[in-house]
Amino acid sequence: MAERYGEMFTIRVADNIWVFLNSSRVVNDLLEKRSAIYSSRPRFPYTSTLMSGDCRMVVQPYGPQWRAIRKIMHSILNIKNAATFAPFQDVESKQLIYEVLQKPDLWWRANQRFANSVIMSVVFGKRIIEREDENVEELFETSREFIMALQPGANLVDTFYILDKLPRPLKWWTKRGEKAFRRLLKVYTTEVEDLKRRVSEGTCRPCFATKFLADPETERLGETQTLFALGSLMEAGSDTSRMTLSQIVAAAATDGRWVKKVQEEMDGVCGYATRLPDFSDRKALAYMNAVCKEGFRWRPFAEIGVPHMLIKDDVYEG
């Protein structure tokens, strides 16, 4: 449709007007340069209100609560604290290589464990060696449930808002959404309680959650919002990383010429069979960096992303 209608076109779906942006130029002009009015979210009666208690940051409207969470997150997830989280990625990347060498037929499972363990280590300070932790399994299952619920057309009430005005007995989706919310709270609470136990025992490594919970501003968010702030990071870094890794493997299987170039570049920087690359080599591995970026561009995890909503009318190029 973008090839036919151009960089920007509009579709009316029920009571909603959807504007599709189809070029980096337009996206940058509106979502970046005018982010102050383009950063809110539309209503999601099922996905946001029922499933998430209006506390999931990715579907929260732009406002004081959203800004408060973002402020705390930015104070922790910045370049100054990168050194705190880099060791997690380094250890897990070595474990990933080992698992692929030992069981190459199960490379997809190794990718999954790697992605989940990295984000679990960064957020909650604990690794996933084997996928045997029942609560961890359920945590990632709830994440996938949310991602599926967010797909266009997955829940009619998120598109046709008039359905939300029906009497409660006629809202067939209500019990399902409330059940998902209770399940999610239980999973998040279990992880946070486990974190607090490890902190009290002195066995918890510094991680995002320890810094987040220690921030005085966090208390103002309330318990439920705090749990969802931590859980949102888990969702952002688990399946997204796994799928990108798998797409790059698929690209390597499709055309191995670029793999040879990556190997040559890596040997030139790290030496042949001498050592593995680390973060200090990043600038020298330009081709490798390009491959990673192409993995995101080629097969994006969510092609249309999460819809944005303007907080006031705007005019663009007439």
Automatic annotation (TrEMBL):
Any one Pfam family match given in the protein's UniProt record, by short name: p450
Keywords assigned by UniProt, alphabetized: Iron, Metal-binding, Oxidoreductase
Protein name listed in UniProt: Cytochrome P450
One Gene Ontology molecular-function label: heme binding
Organism: Corynespora cassiicola Philippines
InterPro entries: Cyt_P450 (IPR001128), Cyt_P450_E_grp-I (IPR002401), Cyt_P450_sf (IPR036396), Cytochrome_P450_fung (IPR050364)
PANTHER family (UniProt xref): P450, PUTATIVE (EUROFUNG)-RELATED, P450, PUTATIVE (EUROFUNG)-RELATED-RELATED
Similarity-based family: Belongs to the cytochrome P450 family.
